[in-house]
From TrEMBL, chain A:
RagB/SusD domain sequence ranges: 482-536
Record InterPro entries: SusD_RagB_dom (IPR012944), TPR-like_helical_dom_sf (IPR011990)
Keyword DNA damage (UniProt): no
Protein name: SusD family protein
Species assigned in the record: Pedobacter rhizosphaerae
TrEMBL record, chain B:
Annotated FAS1 domain residues: 37-160
InterPro entries linked to this entry: FAS1_dom_sf (IPR036378), FAS1_domain (IPR000782)
Listed Pfam families: Fasciclin (PF02469)
Listed SUPFAM superfamilies: FAS1 domain (SSF82153)
Species of origin: Pedobacter rhizosphaerae
UniProt-recorded name of the protein: Uncaracterized surface protein containing fasciclin (FAS1) repeats
């Protein structure tokens, strides 16, 4: 027996004896129904569970997101039954104790993201997860956290940007003592962080991934954040328009190499009637007859919100949406908030109803049919249906939003006519120069045909092939523009050369198309900030309050003329 | 730590709310003079200044009612107020019972604290009384209500005998005999199906009644104009003295030559003699709208007498010169309200804006592939007079495929021969927002006006289109 062996046996003995003597440790059997944090991240399934867990918690932010972004904006108003807190939020008179200005819910998710990211790092270091699996999961949660920070920046202005996990609960309670990052600095940090992510493909998890499955009748493909969309948004807020356009264009062309049913329909905004792959346009079964409007959660424009996430037609519009299931928690909070038969806290404002009524449909019907497809009118009150159709989903990113944001970026980048095309009548009808037969484009030469391609180099984000004749079908030939899909008349062609004018029209279209979906307040802040024109925001809020008969409308306008008052107080002292 | 304090503060404030709530509600609901030991009958019995009314209550048996477990409100006239009561009421037990019941209502009514707050209360004789501030109909409520265990007792300074309703007053009156007799003759007898014995059902599932079933009288005026017997409603009703009735009927005789009393000139006079609400003679405006929507030109000087009925007010007039333009009105037949079609085709009921931004609805039948496709229309009870006929049809507006001019035709039914005859040819030029004058038309007889809108005799698209916003009929009156 050599010395080494002696030492080893002594050590074993020592270890064993410690085990037997310290009774406390022996009795401290780990419980089986609780997971200790050290044991939480052992294999890929644990990592997947962490991702799903984060998204489950994230979904609880919908109520705050919709209320902060829509009720503070001008498209949603309070009802006679709204709580005092919501009335304050709507009229921009929130007190510090108002629960809807509390940033804590956002940070509760952020803290968990930080923790999960740290553990993913550890799993990669310990070889418990492959680099490929790590790249996707890490990038996903990191992008989600960035999205939440973007929200915080929009709502609160300056906020603490924390990316490391907390060691104790006290750290969370002392969060207010962290240094604050201004909104502008925050955008820089988020752009740098997201550009450096290891996985930035169009979809978070490719086909075959353990996180791309169908579960309880829902596909998980679009359950996760779209990173290119987020990057586009960050660049758009920052004012880097070409980079914004590049990221948006990446998604617009995401299915270009797939089969015809995919490449012609996915993210193209068309009014093609194909029951399986498209069919999301406003339709009338009898032309010019308003009673024949297709008002169904299964077909036509309203189906954007009502179709199940497993169908291709739904997938052709959405990039990021989280369905609610009445059988499980969380329950869709909008069911309660929007229904006059329940607590009925929010309703469409008079301002958005007037805006819809000021449009004219292509068939002469004197209002925008999207109004009827966005809310129901009854003697009990107007009920927003967009957020609750077929149980509802929290939809954040979709193709119409993508096209409007792309157009906004392109317009600011000097491509105003391109923005006009996506807004109104689509690419080929805007750019085509050539022969018409009976009102239809009928190119008689290759030169004429090629005018249907947008006049940019192939590697430009502004290059779109929308050619169509009997021989050639360009990927973008069906794209018809947002207003044509909604069957409303295009705006005047003079906007093709009017940058600021078109920018206003794009935001107006966002109201018509995306009302109640949670984009309004950020849209108003972004444009008012960019144009250095507080009245862009203040006048719209003023009109909402005025039309609702709020006597403080003028003073609220005055208040919002100061950009400092756009942001909620970041108050951690409650 | 702060959270703990918050909880204490919350508890404290909640408990404060509870305490203060209790007090406030007590103040709100507090009733003075409550005596829960006796009932209304006993309360009335114990008061010397309403002993006469108490006597009536006992002799009519209402003392048993007022001693029951249900809650009542009693407005008791003082002895002084009953001194001048019509002896006929006291002498007749039926009238006396009605008189007492006219002062009692089921349920407890506190005095309203809001000024001019009107309460219309159903009394035990099924009449209604208006209570405005401290007035029970025309009598004043003296002092506060005396609450006992089954209700409240008020004292009033005047007796309030029950009134006739408008219908009964009209029938009992001799101020407008022609009008009364005409309306009364509109009665028909129908089987009282609620009380008749059913002995079987016929093939259509309708009941067969036993021979000589009980019959009840129904007046068509109740259905076609207003049920003047309804106590819960309030109407102003005009009765025309015979001369006025005769002249007004004569004025309409040519236009409404129907032999059916329900559609005769007399009917077209009396249908516009009832107005919703009560307008006393001193507050009559110069024009009122009848329940059938026709303007009634009024002159206070023509009111001969007025009667306040239980369900409104009746004015007897010596003249009520209706304007012929109101009685033989301009009317429109809307294109989007057709009766039927000659074939099943896709019909567009359109909502569009005209050149002035005003919304209108119309009908369009486009590319229907039929020659002489027709849309049928009908208008009931059209007065016989010569009409100027105008049409409005707008083509070529936003979204409309019909951009070329086209011709459509109107065929009117001749009831005598039961054939549709070509009456007007209508050239529709695109974007014509004004009316097009088609020509004159005079119905052969009083009754339904039937016509059809017929497309060109071709199956060609853009040529056989039909569009109609409306046809406007303007009577040519003297």
């Amino acid at each position: 027996m050599n010395l080494n062996k002696k030492i080893a046996s002594l050590l074993i003995l020592g270890v064993l004896s410690v085990g037997s003597w310290s009774c406390r440790k022996m009795l401290d059997v780990p419980t089986e129904d609780k997971l200790d944090s050290i044991n939480g991240f052992k294999n890929l399934s644990d990592a997947d569970a962490a991702v799903i867990g984060i998204y489950g918690q994230f979904q609880g932010l919908e109520k705050l997101y919709i209320l902060q972004n829509e009720l503070r904006g001008d498209l949603v108003d309070v009802t006679s039954r709204s709580s005092a807190d919501l009335q304050e939020l709507s009229s921009h008179t929130t007190s510090r104790t108002n629960p809807y200005v509390d940033p804590r819910p956002y940070y509760q998710v952020i803290v968990n993201c930080n923790d999960v990211l740290k553990n993913f790092d550890a799993m990669k270091a310990n070889l418990r997860m492959s680099v490929d699996d790590y790249n996707k999961r890490y990038s996903d949660i990191a992008a989600l956290r960035s999205w939440i920070y973007l929200q915080l920046g929009i709502q609160y202005g300056s906020i603490p940007y924390i990316t490391e996990p907390f060691k104790s609960v006290d750290d969370f309670n002392n969060l207010a003592s962290y240094p604050k990052t201004t909104f502008d600095e925050l955008l820089d940090k988020l752009i740098a962080f997201n550009e450096a992510l290891p996985y930035k493909e169009a979809y978070a998890y490719p086909s075959g991934s353990s996180l791309y499955v169908t579960i309880d009748g829902n596909s998980t493909q679009k359950l996760f954040i779209s990173k290119a969309f987020l990057l586009g948004d960050l660049y758009l807020w920052k004012g880097n328009y070409i980079k914004a356009a590049e990221n948006y264009a990446k998604l617009m062309n995401a299915e270009n190499n797939s089969g015809d049913n995919f490449r012609f329909n996915f993210y193209k905004i068309n009014n093609f009637t194909d029951a399986t792959y498209a069919n999301l346009a406003v339709q009338y079964t009898r032309s010019q007859d308003e009673s024949s409007l297709l008002n169904s959660t299964e077909a036509g424009w309203r189906a954007i919100f009502g179709l199940p996430t497993t169908l291709s037609a739904w997938g052709s519009e959405w990039f990021w949406a989280m369905p609610f299931n009445p059988a499980f928690k969380p329950v869709n909070p909008m069911l309660d908030l929007c229904s006059p038969l329940k607590s009925y806290q929010i309703k469409p404002s008079q301002a958005i109803k007037d805006l819809w009524n000021s449009q004219t449909a292509n068939n002469g019907i004197p209002y925008d049919p999207r109004s009827k497809l966005s809310f129901n009118t009854s003697a009990m009150g107007d009920a927003i249906t967009k957020l609750t159709d077929n149980g509802g989903k929290w939809g954040i990113y979709r193709a119409a939003l993508l096209h409007l944001r792309f157009s906004e970026a392109a317009n600011r980048d000097g491509q105003t006519k391109l923005g006009w095309a996506f807004l109104n009548i689509g690419l080929n009808r805007t750019y085509y120069v050539g022969t018409f037969l009976a009102g239809a484009m009928s190119p008689v030469s290759v030169a004429e045909l090629n005018t249907m391609i947008t006049p940019y180099p192939q590697d430009s984000p502004y290059y779109f092939d929308a050619r169509k004749n009997n021989d050639v079908s360009g990927t973008w030939y069906r794209s018809c523009g947002i207003r044509t899909r909604a069957n409303v008349t295009p705006i005047d062609v003079s906007f093709q050369t009017n940058v600021v004018g078109l920018e206003g029209k794009l935001i107006e279209e966002a109201a018509l198309e995306l009302a109640f979906e949670g984009n309004r307040w950020p849209d108003l802040v972004r444009i008012a900030r960019r144009q250095n024109n507080p009245a862009f925001l203040a006048d719209r809020i003023y009109q909402k309050l005025l039309k609702a008969g709020n006597p403080n409308a003028a003073s609220v306008r005055q208040k919002l003329m100061d950009p400092a008052n756009w942001y909620l107080p970041f108050d951690w002292s409650k | 730590m702060t959270k703990k304090y918050l909880i204490y503060i919350a508890f404290f404030s909640i408990s404060t709310v509870f305490c203060s709530c209790k007090d406030n509600w007590e103040v709100h609901n507090e009733l003075k003079n409550v005596d829960n030991t006796i009932d209304l009958a006993q309360k009335i019995d114990s008061q010397a200044d309403i002993s006469v009314f108490n006597g009536f209550v006992k002799s009519t048996g209402y003392d048993k009612v007022l001693a029951s477990a249900q809650n009542y409100t009693v407005w008791a006239p003082s002895n002084a107020a009953l001194a001048g009561l019509d002896a006929a009421i006291v002498a007749d037990p039926v009238k006396l019972k009605d008189f007492v019941a006219n002062h009692i209502a089921l349920s407890t009514y506190p005095l309203s604290t809001k000024s001019n707050d009107t309460l219309r209360v159903k009394l035990l004789n099924s009449k209604y009384a208006n209570i405005i501030d401290a007035k029970f109909e025309e009598s004043n409520i003296v002092g506060n209500g005396q609450f006992v265990k089954n209700g409240v007792l008020y004292k009033v300074d005047q007796a309030v005998p029950s009134r006739l309703n408008i219908w009964d007053y009209m029938l009992s009156s001799t101020d407008a005999n022609l009008q009364k007799n005409y309306i009364n003759a509109l009665s028909i007898s129908v089987i009282d199906s609620a009380n008749a014995t059913i002995i079987g059902y016929n093939a259509l599932g309708r009941p067969i009644f036993a021979p000589n079933p009980p019959m009840v009288s129904r007046n068509t005026y109740w259905v076609n104009v207003a049920d003047l017997r309804a106590e819960a409603q309030e109407y102003t009703y005009f009765m025309l003295q015979d001369a006025a009735f005769t002249s007004e009927t004569a004025k309409l005789a040519n236009y409404y030559p129907s032999v059916d009393p329900n559609l005769s000139a007399s009917f077209y006079v009396v249908k516009d003699l009832t107005v919703k609400g009560v307008y006393t003679a001193d507050k009559l405006p110069d024009t009122l709208l009848s329940v059938r929507g026709v303007k009634i030109p009024l002159n206070k000087g023509n009111v001969v007498k007025s009667y306040r009925a239980s369900n409104g007010i009746v004015h007897v007039l010596k003249a009520l010169p209706f304007r012929l333009t109101d009685k033989v009105p301009v009317f429109k037949v809307e294109g989007e309200l057709p009766l039927s079609f000659s074939a099943s085709r896709t019909i567009s009921y359109r909502t569009k804006l005209d050149d002035k931004g005003k919304q209108y609805k119309d009908i369009q039948v486009y590319n229907h592939l039929l020659s002489e496709f027709s849309v049928f229309y009908v208008r009931a009870n059209v007065p016989t007079v010569k009409y100027k006929v105008y049409a409005r049809a707008i083509s070529g507006a936003l979204g409309d495929s019909q951009v070329a001019a086209f011709t459509q035709r109107f065929f009117f039914l001749n009831p005598g021969t039961a054939t549709f005859n070509l009456t007007f040819t209508h050239l529709v030029n695109p974007l014509t927002y004004t009316e097009t004058y088609l020509g004159e038309y005079t119905p052969a007889t009083f009754g339904n006006l039937n016509f059809r809108l017929t497309s060109a005799a071709t199956t060609a698209v853009n040529v056989n289109t039909l569009i109609l916003d409306y046809l406007r009929f303007e009577p040519v009156l003297p």
